[in-house]
């Protein structure tokens, strides 16, 4: 029974009780009102019994509701203190109190999930920082012992590791902002062809080091209303990964086109591909198919997670298609002009 209905019955019951008791008392106190005294007494007694029965029922209903409420309050407090250990259980009617219990349990699940994510994040960041810190410490200790000279070239690895840590911290900051929906997008009309050319000309040096080629294919000379810096960061990441995973002498192709008010960009390589069992996870933070290779190439393991958040913040999508031994293709779709601000 719904709590509102219960309350109605409760009020009705109390009304009846008061009415019955008053009527009964009046009959008993004024025998002259009722001609046959014995009949009057019977009526008064019947009214009194009715009043007690209805009053008793109402009291029982009120007592049950109040007991369930007290139990709910107690369990909610236990959930607040230890969300991972407790859940609210409220046997009885499927009323508003039961809905409240379900809402508390849903809140508890969210709390627990949030806590697990936080713990996992702290563990991941600690793990990511441990390696560069160990390298820096190792080098410094060897230098202090005099086993390694304090020469500029011996300082280069230390500088690399501090750069990696700075990038990791910056990436974490961007990702946190994006995940909390607090990423400020500084949108303007951006020409996509010149932006892609600019990125590719910067990355060509990296490709040349492994004799890989980067080709840009596309005819569209339109503009997209987006945050240029963020979109550039996504593309640098995707093209950077494609170069990194392409084989010696491999090929990276960047295609772009307009499709029904959406800009589509494909970044394809002929690298080793991603095994299908890893594909569902590669946009998760710190997920790597081969941790050692990613770290050796300077990756923070956050590039794709950031790419996904940035593209989704623009109202777009990012997908991956990959075949082991053949290559990988990432597809970004961005609305030319977003309907949402
Ligand atoms: P990382 O800093 O490790 O590159 P990303 O988030 O950019 O982090 O990528 C996550 C993982 O996805 C990489 O470690 C790698 O295993 C896989 N990956 C990304 N791009 C490619 C690609 N083009 N070819 C093969 N694997 C890729």
What is this structure, in a nutshell?
This protein is α+β, with helices and mostly antiparallel strands and 341 residues long. The protein has helices at 3-29, 37-81, 96-144, 152-179, 192-208, 228-245, 291-296, 303-313; strands at residues 187-191, 213-217, 223-227, 251-259, 262-269, 317-323, 327-335.
Structure description:
The model has no long low-confidence stretch (mean pLDDT 86). The chain is built from eight helices and seven strands, in the order ααααβαββαββααββ. Helix 6 packs antiparallel against helix 8 (303-313). Strand 6 and strand 7 form a beta hairpin. Helix content is 59%, strand content 14%. The longest helix is centred in the middle third of the chain and has 49 residues, at 96-144. The chain has helices spanning 3-29, 37-81, 96-144, 152-179, 192-208, 228-245, 291-296, 303-313; strands spanning 187-191, 213-217, 223-227, 251-259, 262-269, 317-323, 327-335. The chain has a five-stranded mixed sheet with strand order 2-4-5-7-6. The protein has a two-stranded antiparallel ribbon with strand order 1-3. The protein is elongated. It is α+β, with helices and mostly antiparallel strands and 341 residues long. The protein starts with a helix and ends in a 6-residue tail after the last strand. The protein folds into three domains: 3-81; 120-179, Signal transduction histidine kinase, dimerisation/phosphotransfer (DHp) domain (Helix Hairpins), CATH 1.10.287; 188-335, Histidine kinase-like ATPase, C-terminal domain (Heat Shock Protein 90, 2-Layer Sandwich), CATH 3.30.565. Bound molecules: adenosine-5'-diphosphate. The site of adenosine-5'-diphosphate (ADP) has 21 residues, from helix 6 and helix 8.
């Amino acid at each position: 029974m719904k709590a509102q209905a219960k309350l109605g019955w409760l009020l009705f019951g109390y009304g009846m009780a008061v009415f019955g008791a008053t009527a009964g008392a009046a009959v008993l106190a004024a025998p002259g009102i009722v001609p046959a005294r014995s009949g009057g007494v019977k009526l008064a007694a019947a009214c009194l019994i009715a009043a007690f029965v209805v009053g008793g029922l109402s009291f029982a209903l009120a007592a049950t509701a109040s007991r369930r409420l007290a139990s709910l309050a107690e369990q909610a407090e236990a959930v607040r203190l230890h969300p991972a250990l407790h859940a609210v259980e409220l046997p009885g009617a499927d009323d508003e109190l039961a809905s409240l219990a379900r809402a508390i349990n849903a809140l508890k699940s969210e709390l627990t999930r949030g806590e697990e994510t936080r713990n996992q994040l702290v563990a991941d960041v600690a793990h990511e920082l441990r390696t560069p810190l160990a390298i820096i410490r190792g080098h410094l200790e060897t230098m202090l012992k005099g086993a390694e000279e304090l020469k500029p070239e011996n300082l280069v690895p230390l500088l690399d590791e501090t750069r990696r840590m700075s990038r990791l911290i910056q990436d974490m900051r961007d990702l946190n902002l994006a995940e909390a929906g607090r990423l400020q997008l500084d949108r303007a009309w951006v020409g996509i062809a010149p932006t892609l050319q600019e990125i590719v000309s910067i990355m060509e040096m990296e490709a040349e080091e492994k004799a890989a080629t980067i080709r840009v294919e596309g005819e569209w000379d339109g503009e997209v209303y987006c945050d240029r810096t963020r979109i550039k960061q996504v593309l640098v990441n995707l093209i950077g990964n494609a170069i990194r995973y392409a084989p010696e002498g491999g090929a990276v192709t960047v295609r772009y086109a307009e499709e029904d008010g959406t800009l589509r960009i494909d970044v394809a390589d002929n690298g080793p591909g991603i095994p299908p069992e890893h594909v569902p996870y590669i946009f998760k933070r710190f997920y790597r198919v081969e941790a050692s290779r990613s770290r050796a190439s300077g990756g923070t393991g956050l590039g794709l997670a950031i790419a996904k958040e940035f593209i989704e913040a623009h109202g777009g999508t990012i997908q991956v298609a990959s075949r082991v031994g053949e290559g990988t293709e990432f597809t970004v779709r961005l609305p030319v002009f977003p309907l949402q601000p």
